[in-house]
Amino acid sequence: MDIGFSTSVESDVDQLDEAIARLEQLDGKTAEAGLFGGFAAKKAMWQEYGTSRGIPERPFLRNTQYENESRWSQKTGQDIIQVFEGGLSSSAVLSNLGLLMVQDIRKTIDAGNFAPLSPATIAKKGSSKPLVDTGDMYGAITHRES
User: 101-123 pLDDT, tens per residue?
Assistant: First the structure.
């Protein structure tokens, strides 16, 4: 009978500890996308929820979330596996998610499936496309991590 000692289990435990440490860097972190401050954010709120002054609700942020949250979760899960395996940094997970959310918000706006503009608004801006006028609100869509 041979009795021996192998260090492979010990090195596997070290690798597991490193993988867990990488994942722990994500604990409590968040990624957000939208409009944060300024006049563009106010306009976004008026569009999202409508106003008593006649702007109908055009929920581009909520619709984007409802339509994409499952896909965002799936993509984030794939990224977390890469963090565990050492192929992606924990900060990249949040950045990737934020960028994806920004793209999806813009796609929702581009699709234009919202309450139509009034004839007076169409005449004023020269277009019937809701949520796109000067481009300042569209361009202000960004993401942040905390």
Answer: 999 999 999 998 888 888 988 89
Cβ count within 10 A of residue 35: 22
Note whether 34 and 61 are within 8 A (CB).
yes
29 vs 108, higher pLDDT: 108
Q: What angle do CA 73, 76, 78 make, to 5 degrees?
A: 110
- Separation of alpha carbons 12 and 34, rounded Å: 42
Instruction: Give the residue carrying structure tokens 């896909």.
Output: 71
Global pTM reads: 0.83
Whether the CB-CB separation of 44 and 34 falls below 8 Å is answered with: yes
Q: Which DSSP string corresponds to 10-22?
A: HHHHHHHHHHHHH
Answer whether residue 85 shows pLDDT above 70: yes
Give the span between the Cα atoms of 74 and 91, in whole angstroms.
Answer: 17
* Lookup: tokens for 121: 């608004």
SS3 26: coil
pLDDT value of position 76: 92
